[in-house]
Amino acid sequence: MTIRTLKDLYIDQLQDLYSADKQSLDATKKLHEKATSSQLKSALEDGVKGISQGMEQVKGLIQGHNANPNGEHCKGMEGLVKEAKAHAIDADIADKDVLDASIITQYQRMTHYGLAGYGTALAFAKRLNLDSDARTLQTCLDNSYDGDRRMTEIATGEVNKEAVSA
C-alpha cells in the first residue's frame, strides 16, 4: 500500500496492530502454558481474551475502511515474539519463580508495543475526526493499560518476591 495521506498511514498502522496482535496472541498462549503462578496464569488467560477482542475490533476498523486486515506484517512484534521464545517459552530456566518473572517481562514488552500502536492509531483517528474509530481504539488502549498494570502488580507482589528467595 502506498502511503500518501494521514488516512493511508492510519490504515497502515491499524494493519500493523492487527498483525502485532495476531503474533502476540500466539506467544501469550504459549507463555500461559509455561507459567506456574496461578495469579500469572489467570492474568495471561485474560490477556489472551483481551488480545483476541482487540484483534476483532481492529479488524472491524480496517474492514470499515475497505482495507485488508492482513495487509501488513509487523516486524517489531516478530522480534518481540522471538525474544519471548528465547527468554521464556523455550528458555532453560529451572526455577519456576524466575521463569514466571521472565514471562512477565516478555509479556509486558509485547504489551508496551501494543500500547504504542494503539496510542498512535488513536491520535490519528482523532486528527482524522473518526470519532467511532477513536472510541474503539480508546477502549483497546484502556484494556491494554489495565492488563499491563495487572502484570506489574503480580511482578511487584507474589512473583518477584518468590524469585528473589529462590
Polypeptide structure, described:
The chain has 166 residues and is an all-alpha fold. It is built from 5 helices and no strands. The protein has helices at 6-34, 38-64, 75-89, 96-127, 131-164. The chain starts with 5 loop residues before the first helix and ends with a helix. The model has no long low-confidence stretch (mean pLDDT 94).
Which keywords apply here?
5 helices, mainly alpha, 83% helix
Number of strands: 0
Given as residue ranges, the uncertain stretches (5+ residues, pLDDT < 50) are none
The end-to-end span amounts to: 51 Å
- Tell me about the largest β-sheet: none
Average per-residue pLDDT, rounded, comes to 94
**How much helicity do the residues have?**
over 70%
Number of discrete helical segments? 5
**How would the global form be characterised?**
elongated
What is the chain-wise order of helices and strands?
HHHHH
Which percent range describes the beta-strand content?
A: under 5%
SSE class: mainly alpha
Q: Please tell me how large the radius of gyration is.
A: 17 Å
Topology:
Elements: H1 6-34, H2 38-64, H3 75-89, H4 96-127, H5 131-164
Helix pairs in contact: 1-2, 1-3, 1-4, 2-5, 3-4, 4-5
Provide a quick synopsis of the model.
The chain is mainly α and 166 residues long.
